[in-house]
Amino acid sequence: MTQEELFKKLIAHSKEYGFIFPSSEIYDGLSAVYDYGQLGVELKNNIKRYWWDAMTKLHDNIVGIDAAIFMHPKTWEASGHVGAFNDPLIDNKDSKKRYRADVLIEDWIAKQDEKIEKEVAKAAKRFGEAFDREQFVTTNARVLEIKAKRDAAHEKMTEVLNANDLAGVKALIEELGIVCPISGTKNWTDVRQFNLMFSTQMGSTADGASIVYLRPETAQGIFVNFLNVQKTGRMKIPFGIAQIGKAFRNEIVARQFIFRMREFEQMEMQFFVKPGTEMQWFEHWRQFRMSWHRALGFGDDRYRFHDHEKLAHYANAATDVEYEFPFGFKEVEGIHSRTDFDLSQHAKFSGKKIQYFDTESGESYTPYVVETSIGVDRMFLQVFSAAYTEEKLENGEERVVMRFPAALAPVKAAVLPLVKKDGLPEVARKIVNDLKFDHYVQYDEKDSIGKRYRRQDAIGTPLCITVDHQSLEDGTVTIRHRDSMQQERVKIAELPGIVHDMVSLRPLFAKLVR
């Protein structure tokens, strides 16, 4: 199965089982906008809870806020978004389609990486167990040729983007022979900048209305509340402020399902530190955030760091946590050392003094900031794609199972009466009523028990609890485990403890505080 085929299956599965729907689908949808269905919202909320608790419960110096989406327009002037929040765009004159110029180049580079992997795969098949990958990629003439072109293009792209050389960006596209995916031609316009912020009007009349923006990130709501939180919470440096909220970007290249959308959700934490200590904290959060991802158990080798060569205007260090999606390694989280840019800019534009008084040293200073920023929707896609598994069983049957970490699974347990009579549904309903105060559980009595198991596998339910006639005799039920499909007999009275231990976040958190 190719990556493209797998990706199509993920999209189809997410819709069929109520995870994600195209927004306004009855009106043919809205490009790059999606709705989370009944199971999708549960998975999404569980992901957010895992992040929120890891930040605010595991750290006694991090607190949370929920800032408004609308902010004073000067906020975005101070942050640089009005003047510098741009993407380099290019149009194909034949297809009339618009693209991000840097993404076209990145896609070309990714294709070179794919070519290298194909050469490696062919060689591995030819040489078998004797194959030495490192030796092959460092000595094979064809691989070296592809790699040289790839590295040269990457170096040139970094150079022209850092210099904001739009003519150089177009020249590189032409030099690489990049064609429009729709028309197949190289008939390109010049590259120009496009601001990504959505604007609207606030006010009762058109004449009296003022322009405001839908926030393109949640971080600025934290920065403008720095003094409010620090003073009312009596916070001492170093400390952090966390926030989960919606953000909006008028992405031209919105693609790959929910990976890049125009309306999305962010989980951001801004950690305020004493100047001169920011790189120490940058490394701390770099390691902690990677541990948070790897604790989910999807495989350490599927994550990697990607250090930025082109730094944002506010940063002196930046790295991404990348995950190997079905369409390659892509960013799921960014860790940035933002210096004192944000607080200094807001102090300048507001005319207010935004500093921290250190009672131990007796000095006042503008704190530096280390940021962790993760997209909820990208994290959802990462978890969903990692969990999706097609299995062929020993009896020849096949099943699709979503191997969600139990703590993130939308439905924690399903209670299934073996038949719809003889008092079994009543026992099953009582079990549901006992569990539902603590967990999201489902009751299902339709179809054969085998089909019901398959349905629960397909939505990632960790435990299926089957009530049968023996349950009436001795007060026991059968628990079936999703991943192993093994079954065990347990007492009904023990179910609350068993389910709690299985789906608790505690085992994940234990990996982070060792």
Automatic annotation (TrEMBL):
- Record-level Gene Ontology MF annotations: ATP binding; bis(5'-nucleosyl)-tetraphosphatase (asymmetrical) activity; glycine-tRNA ligase activity
What EC number(s) would the UniProt record show? 6.1.1.14
Name the catalysed reactions.
tRNA(Gly) + glycine + ATP = glycyl-tRNA(Gly) + AMP + diphosphate
Q: Which GO terms describe its cellular component?
A: cytoplasm; extracellular exosome; microvesicle
Q: Where is the Aminoacyl-transfer RNA synthetases class-II family profile domain?
A: 197-417
Q: Which InterPro entries match?
A: aa-tRNA-synt_IIb, aa-tRNA-synth_II, aa-tRNA-synth_II/BPL/LPL, Anticodon-bd, Anticodon-bd_dom_sf, Gly-tRNA_synthase/POLG2, Gly_tRNA_ligase_bac, GlyRS-like_core
GO terms, biological process: diadenosine tetraphosphate biosynthetic process; glycyl-tRNA aminoacylation
Q: According to the UniProt record, what class of enzyme is this?
A: ligase
Q: Answer yes or no on keyword Membrane.
A: no
Assigned keywords, A-Z: Aminoacyl-tRNA synthetase, ATP-binding, Cytoplasm, Ligase, Nucleotide-binding, Protein biosynthesis
Detail which positions bind substrate.
Answer: 100, 217, 264-268, 371-375
Q: Where does ATP bind?
A: 249-251, 259-264, 331-332, 375-378
In terms of Pfam families, this protein maps to:
HGTP_anticodon, tRNA-synt_2b
Q: Where in the cell is it found?
A: Cytoplasm
Q: Which HAMAP family match?
A: Gly_tRNA_synth_B (MF_00253_B)
Q: Which family does it belong to?
A: Belongs to the class-II aminoacyl-tRNA synthetase family.
According to its UniProt entry, the function of this protein is described as: Catalyzes the attachment of glycine to tRNA(Gly).
What does the subunit section of this Swiss-Prot or TrEMBL entry state? Homodimer.
State the protein's name.
Glycine--tRNA ligase
The species this protein was found in: Rikenella microfusus
Q: What is the lineage of its organism?
A: Bacteria, Pseudomonadati, Bacteroidota, Bacteroidia, Bacteroidales
